[in-house]
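Hi! If you just cloned this repository, the fastest way to understand the data is to look at a raw example. We've pasted two of them here, unedited. The first protein comes first, obviously.
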Amino acid sequence: MKKIDRNTSAAFDVDAQRGFTPLCPNELPVPGGDTIVEELNAQAVFARVRVASKDCHPNKAPWIASSPAEVLTPVAGNYPNLDVKWPAHCVVGTEGNLLIPGLPGENDYDLVVGKGIDPEKHPYGACYHDLANSESTGVIEFLKENGIKPVIVGGLATEYCVHQTATQLLNAGFAVVLNLGACRGLDAQVIEKAVEGLRNLGAIVIESAAELNAA
């Protein structure tokens, strides 16, 4: 059991949105992405603060692929905060932007941060609006102001937004507990490498919230 002091802990639901699940098959569905709700809710029991991040994309942007063949190809032009093209996903005002059914309503979280709002920026981590990690979304400051030390992290997808968010939190000085039971990803080999990288940075990795124990 990993002892967690609930009074100083936060639970972070990273991009747990319908656009990353089979509920929206034409967006960026992660296999099993809609099955993480129980674990996200379970880990939140061990936290005083619960936060979430959401991709809040526009419906037109240079990074949106016009065909499947364009997905993961480099974005042309002078766009320092874009890397590769993706299918349109989690567009504001669409079902894909909504949280997965079974999670709390957005007003029930202590903080919900939006990212990817600017069409010329496509961040992965939830702590910054840009790829250079210089424009804060405010979540790091919010957690520090609330006296948070460990952050229990889950969400979608493991090797992208979850990995980058956990890395940003570690670099900001938080202890990170990565709950694999609350995550799903796309590529097993890339996931394994991402998780090992987080371990090397000091993250504690657990298989489920059942491994947690309130101090």
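Ok, and the second one:
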Amino acid sequence: MSAFDTLMAHARETQALAQVAGRLGWDQETVMPRGAAPQRAEEMAALEGVLHARRTDPRLAEWLAEAEAPDAAGAAQLRLIRRQHERAVKVPARLAAELARVTSRAQGVWAEARAAQDAGAFVPVLAEVVALRREEGAALAQGGDLYDALLQDYEPGTTAAEIEAMFGALGPRLAELRSAVLERPAPAALSGRFDEAAQHALARELAQAFGYDLMRGRIDTAVHPFSAGSGLDVRITTRTDPADPFNCLYSTIHEVGHATYEQNIDAAYLLTPVGQGASMGVHESQSRLYENQLGRSRAFTGWLYGRMREIFGDLGIADEEAFYAAVNRVHRGFIRTESDELQYNLHILMRFDLERALISGDLAAGDLEAAWNDRFGADFGYAPERPSDGFLQDVHWSVGLFGYFPTYTLGNLYAGCLHAAMRRDLPDLDESLGNGDPSPATGWLRETVQRHGGLMEPRDLIAAATGEAPSEIPLLAYLEDKFGHLYGL
């Protein structure tokens, strides 16, 4: 075989093993017995050791030096393999295995601490995770910024300074819009109790309407909804609340955005570096666009209102327009995943600043709860009432995902750009959405974004899909128009 063919065979085996590791993570968050956590930590560490050895194999450098790409896709494969190898060789095998072991254990500690409202039980293991990620950041940065080094795992080519500039342009206008909205009377919310089995059934219906292939996926429940896997096995989770069916329905649509991205990547890239999403920011653009610009649109909620009345009966909402307002109701709340579309990014801006402080060493894990509560009070005007409403609400830091949070807002920015281009190309989209059929939109995303996988760098992919460089301007225009009309501003 040529050097390129040998390299790709090695990459496919590595990717297959990485999928096995991901499946262990899915199992841990869904059906694994609670008592299995210590053993699972050792299993994850052992598998990470195998993966790290493959990613740092000395032969990779030789193959990369000799390999010639047969086409543009091959060039992208080489780019991604080289990037992964160059990062992996900077991280000691001991550190890679220890990170896998500790974050697996920390995830279970976080879940129990969250359920018990016991912040103190989580702090020691969080301190371990932060210390290990700081060590990893130092190894990767080699004298540069630790947070920037970690950020490359989620949004390659982006720096914290660039994100800070975009967020700086976004934050004040969002806060101003929120203040104007909150001065207006709040629309009515849903009332009543909503059967959880019926919620699951409707969530499954919505998942398929948005293009999720259940022959290559499944829907389970978890404390924190997520998507896992790629290619032919892409799974999602959701959760239910008998008083709030939107939690289940829109969490499902969100995760379907992630899952269909992975399912729709060109089959020729299966189990290769290109056979995954271009970045977490691009991934979030899909999930947020599915959930918000499509799922919370006036046209789609008009259809959903009728469907929910068929299933649940009276919703305590007078008509389709009132239902649209209820779906998009700006409301007081602590939980990021349950936040309305207007305030969501303010949750992310806060987390971005806090995790940068943790990684820089300016904030200790033991001071995080107080720092969170102070910042939340300053940004939102009220303080969390219990740990699960505050810094224990998200799973991310327990599993070491420092650098992940800003990709949610980057995803929203990308989604704003994509939505503007989609509306330009699909002038009759609302007619389909009004019939409960988002397939013209999901088909457009499949062709312009999803099928390419990691073929392009994140910003290049968005620019190619939209014809313009990504910016915050389309998102702000969309939000100001939508909530301006909803609240009569």
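That's it. A detail worth noticing about the second one: The chain has a mean pLDDT of 96.
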